[in-house]
User: Which sequence fits this backbone?
């Protein structure tokens, strides 16, 4: 069973940047499609970005042009660079495979506020 540990969240002002990291266990990480998801209070968890083992990417329209997903297969780690953050980006952020497994980590909280 793959496990995920997210980090890098925090409080940032609108227009600021954060870089999230997700360490994943599992020997087949390099061939899995990995995704970043977020869940705001009272809302469903949604995918914001995903990346294939070969580096192909997909972004939700709400973050396109502002977020960049990347991965380091040697480190079993996936990243999410978030720029030009908006208050509506406030959420708990999680990584998982895509489609997602049932093994969710604790997530990392991102709060965008002045």
Assistant:
């Amino acid at each position: 069973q793959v496990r995920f540990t997210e980090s890098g969240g925090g409080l940032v002002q609108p227009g600021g940047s954060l870089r999230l990291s997700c360490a994943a266990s599992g020997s087949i990480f390099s061939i899995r499609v990995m995704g970043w998801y977020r869940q705001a209070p009272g809302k469903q968890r949604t995918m914001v970005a995903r990346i294939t083992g070969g580096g192909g990417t997909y972004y939700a329209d709400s973050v396109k042009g502002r977020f960049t997903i990347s991965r380091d297969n040697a480190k079993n780690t996936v990243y999410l660079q978030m720029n030009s953050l908006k208050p509506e980006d406030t959420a708990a952020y999680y990584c998982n495979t895509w489609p997602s497994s049932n093994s969710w980590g604790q997530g990392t909280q991102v709060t965008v506020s002045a």
